[in-house]
């Protein structure tokens, strides 16, 4: 079959399972990460982290550190160069409202773990040793870090965060109708603070190129964001700074915003006029952003048959004292379920912590856990099957967005196909009714939902006379498979092999693209690459028509197809010519185009776009040991067209694994006396390991969507959403215990 420009339909590579094109580089060590690049006379910076959560620095004794041979300088708020103008010009595409954290700005301590000095030395070991010799004294104040103790200090964030929908105004009368409902359920739910912990810690290497030029390698999910940040904060000419990150060892959102190690590396490089690398330690990965602990109350009022009459979802989340971080927590309840009386609220409280940040499906992981556990409780209370209850209250329109219909919503197929694969019909609804040896067995399910988004994105395509195609833009592949899907799209667009295509990413010399986040990269960069290739294809077509005895004479562009390295008449492939022959005949060495893709305004005026999922979980619980094992997960996903079933499946597997972590293990524990996360290492902050993971099956249901020309909706985040609720619901089914406080650790099972 041949391929015309749409990547739906007759594709050769798009839609087929392909291994990662960047896989060999990653597993052989050829791939280099931000902290691995080097330059002449590279210096190494080690961050000294503060030990109190609130107060002032009264003195920093750097004498011993500076006396260590090889130490070049110890930078603190007292001696930092005044070349950074953080006050007025800060730019960061993902920043919430407020005044961003400024490392080494003054003597004020905002949170525990705050960087208070940077020790710069000729080698890493010296810097690390000397950092341990820096003595900091403080005037400490009592920090407030307990979300349960904020009382009436909670507030509605006055400035809304760009791109984050605030809760809609209430409709109907949720409280009055709740009071008179036949079935009433009001419970509180909590999700613990989580830290992202990508494998690759945050790192920045700044190479001084001379004449005011810098090349910067930064661990960030979009180099354009770091580029704008550096230019604005240091007053640099954008043309003189190039930021790159060809590979990332994960991000999960921790790399959406430039973090303080980038600032410190550039500060030192400019001060010393030497190249500098700063790599954070694993425990310093607890010294900046995190998924915020959130307290929620869900109130459901229903008829005896399970029809929802009243729905209230209230959330309280912490933020820092300097920024109002916001995420969408409560809206999901009314996106998923139809109800005539709804009230949704989302409040913040300021604590002495760093600003929370987006972590894989921010807000949805939190809010959907609450509503999907509450719906399971309602199913139990009304004696309905959990799927039946969800179908009874199924939404066909988005009540949080002027009641617009969904562009597509194949959630019912997720229920049907997921249930079938899982064997849901064999479930005995009675808790504690299933047992295997010494373990209780539980089956639970939940729905997942995430917004399907697209962002303004550019990309280029360059076809050279040797038949090779390069495409790319500045976004990052955070491990999701972006290199691979863009290569597939480009290859199909011009009828080339994947081997003939090179995809370049993570470089501000490439066309501008947003951060890789929000699950929008496939739709955004994919469409931009397709359009750039289409432009090149049109140029080729024009040249082909100009050839002597052109086989395409009298043929419109709409009737040609690109396949097997040729441009030919779609329904008469013999009438065609090789791309390289077209270029040779025209005497051109290369054809290039830059195109940009943007959200479809007409579509968005009419429809709302979400991905959906149905997650089915089996747990086995040893009641004597309090141990929960997740022995089986089926995750059925409706996310539009799947570009690459292999990388797509990997995205969902990763999301499910992270969901298991969120359900059973992940928790950054705050000692509220010290205002400090106490388990700041991977031995005490648990993430799932191989032994925790058993069967995970992923199903992609058919779904046609028209929000973008590719028909894709994005898969980076949907896999985690709802997974914790499915597990918590399975734990209830196994044990009869309803645990509304994540993670479900041994103590809670034994309690
Ligand atoms: Mo994702 S939390 O938008 O990297």
Shape: globular
Structural class: alpha+beta
Percent range for β-strand residues: 25-35%
Oligomeric state of the chains in view: single chain
Instruction: Please report the number of helical segments.
Output: 18
**CATH architecture descriptor name of the domain at 363-453 and 603-751:** 2-Layer Sandwich
Alpha carbon gap, first and last residue? 62 Å
Q: Main β-sheet: number of strands, strand sense, barrel status?
A: 7 strands, mixed
The CATH homologous superfamily name of the domain at 363-453 and 603-751 equals Aldehyde oxidase/xanthine dehydrogenase, molybdopterin binding domain
Q: What is the strand tally?
A: 30
* Range of helix content: 10-25%
Query: Strands of the largest sheet, in order across it?
Result: 3-5-1-11-8-9-10
Mind telling me the C-alpha Rg?
Answer: 27 Å
How confident is the prediction overall: mean pLDDT? 96
CATH class of the domain at 363-453 and 603-751 reads Alpha Beta
Show unreliable segments: 1-9
What is the CATH topology assignment of the domain at 363-453 and 603-751?
A: Aldehyde Oxidoreductase, domain 4
List the helices and strands and how they pair.
Layout: H1 23-28, E1 43-49, E2 55-61, H2 63-66, E3 71-76, H3 86-89, E4 108-109, E5 115-121, H4 124-131, E6 135-140, H5 174-179, E7 183-191, E8 203-210, E9 213-218, H6 223-234, E10 241-244, H7 260-272, E11 276-279, E12 294-302, E13 308-319, H8 331-336, E14 342-350, H9 364-382, H10 386-392, E15 397-398, E16 404-405, H11 411-422, E17 435-436, E18 439-451, E19 457-464, E20 469-472, H12 482-493, E21 501-504, H13 521-545, E22 560-563, E23 566-569, E24 572-578, H14 579-586, E25 590-597, H15 601-606, E26 610-622, E27 627-638, H16 645-664, E28 670-671, E29 676-677, E30 695-700, H17 723-735, H18 746-750
Parallel strand pairs: 1-11, 9-10, 13-14, 20-21, 27-30
Antiparallel strand pairs: 1-5, 2-4, 2-6, 3-5, 7-12, 8-9, 8-11, 12-13, 15-16, 17-18, 18-26, 19-20, 19-25, 22-23, 23-24, 26-27, 28-29
Helix pairs in contact: 9-10, 9-17, 12-13, 16-17
Bound molecules: dioxothiomolybdenum(VI) ion.
